Amino acid sequence: MNFEELENLIKENLKDATVEISDLTGTGDHLGLSITSNEFKGKNLLAQHRMVMDILKEELKDRLHAVKLKTQTYEQG
Amino acid sequence: MSNPFNIVGQETSEKGRPYEENSEGLGAKERIEKMIASTPIFLFMKGVPDFPQCGFSANVIAILNSLDIKYSSFDVLSDMDIRQGIKDFSNWPTIPQLYVNGEFIGGCDIITEMYQKGELQSLLAK
Predict the structure, then answer these.
(1) Alpha carbon B42 to its chain's center
(2) d(C-alpha B15, C-alpha B68), whole Å
(3) Are A57 and B93 inside 8 Å of each other by CB?
(4) CA neighbor of B115 nearest in space, from B106, B93, A9
C-alpha cells in the first residue's frame, strides 16, 4: 500500500507519532514500521504492538501481508 | 534474497515437534485452550519446525531452537478453523503466535526484541 497513506493512518491515531516505513521485500506488502510516540509510555511491548496492530487491523486483512514492528517512546529514541 | 526476518540464521529444528491432536467434536476455542495447556511452550505457526512456510515463523523457530528448550507447534495452514480461531483467541492479527504457560507472549517482532534483550531467555527458563 501507499506509504503516505499508511503514515497518515498511523498519525490520525497516534498524534505525536514519528513514522519510518521501509519495504522489506520489494513487494510493498511486507513493511518495516518504526514508530516513535509518547502514547506508548508506560505500556509493555505487547500492549504497544497491540495499539499499532489495532490501527492496521483492516489493512492487514487485505493489502498488507505483514509488518515488522518497532515501537518506542521519544525518551527511548 | 536471504530471509530478512531470520535474525539467527539457523532454520531447522530438533527441539520443536508438531502437536498431535485428539479433539473430536471440540470447537476452535476449546481446541486452542487444550493445545496451549498441553505444554509450557506452544507456537502457532505456518508450516512445521523442520519446514517453516513463512519468514516470520522461520525466525521464531530459529530463535526457539537456539535456546535450550522444548516446544510444541501447530501448523495453521493445515486448518482454517484454527488459522482464524487463533487470531480471535488472542485478538492478534498475525501468525506466528507464541504462548508460554497458556499466556500469549507475542508474534515475531516481540519475540525477536525480547530475545535480543535477553528477556525471552529468562521468561522461558522459569
Answers:
(1) 6
(2) 8
(3) yes
(4) B106
CA distance A31 to A64: 8
pTM of the model: 0.83
Structural domain includes residue B41: yes
The pLDDT tens digits for B90-115 are 999 889 999 999 999 999 999 999 99
Q: Which of A53, A66, A68 sits opposite B92 (nearest CB)?
A: A53
Is position B57 within any domain?
yes
Tell me the pLDDT tens digit for each residue of A34-66.
999 999 999 999 999 999 989 998 888 888 877
pLDDT tens profile B21-53: 887 889 999 999 999 999 999 999 999 999 999
Closest partner residue to B110 (CB to CB) among A30, A49, A57 is: A49
Task: Using a CB–CB cutoff of 8 Å, tell me whether A60 touches chain B.
Answer: yes
Q: Is residue B6 part of a domain?
A: no
CATH of domain A3-72: 3.30.300.90
